[in-house]
Design goal:
Elements (H helix, E strand, L loop, with lengths): L3 H4 L17 H11 L6 H21 L28 H4 L42 E9 L8 H13 L8 E4 L4 H9 L15 H4 L6 H15 L4 E8 L3 E8 L1
Parallel strand pairs: 2-3
Antiparallel strand pairs: 1-4, 3-4
Length: 255
Amino acid sequence: MTTTAEAMMTLVSKSPSHGHAAPGPTAHEHAGHRRTAPAKGAREEQDAFALRSHQNAARAFADGAYAAEIIGVPGVHLDRDEGIRDDTSMAAPAALKPAFLANGSVTAGNSSPLDDGASAVLLGAENALPGAQPLARITGRGVAGNDPDVFGITPVEAAHRALARAGRTWSDVDLVELNEAYAAQSIACMRLWPELDPQKVNVDGGAIAIGHPLGASGGRIVGHLAHALSARGGGIGVAAICIGVGQGLAVVLEA
């Protein structure tokens, strides 16, 4: 079984563009390396995860998977996120230097950019709007806390708690929206969910491609999960996100 330390070996606190992280990102990446030495191939695995995020997001936008949930910017032709690289390859992230440690594996290419954005989700009791057809129903919610040095794996326990409260297991789950603060952090969470099929995670891309507007990303992933489940005729999904000071949140949706 993969230990927390092994899963978190390349984690840092914030992406390279988040210059205000506290404590500093270098301290957090050092903390990850103190727990275990970098695994062979860690950089390549993270770059491949980032490439998948861009490829999935590009395909999803081209297929209209986000059309129902995006409000364009008035006055300019801006109806999709600008960070998505349709034509990227493994060669592009491989050329980037480590962001924090000289021998580190976290780069700007396998981290989420800090973007501007806003999100809104309408929640209500079943009898609040008679006749309304909700996209999905929240059947479980989980909150977890951890040492801030390993904040990135807080979605693991949060999701387990949410599933337990919903009376579900990973075998019931059709889709997962996991906020991609970093490829390293996302891979760590997925390793600690061994029952989950990784191909169910972020099938329409994630924050590495789309961006991570702090304070809005939670609403974005919950909203997209609801739309995605509805578009496929229903199902069960998990949305999970880490928070830089050692917290994690997750919800289970059923549509």
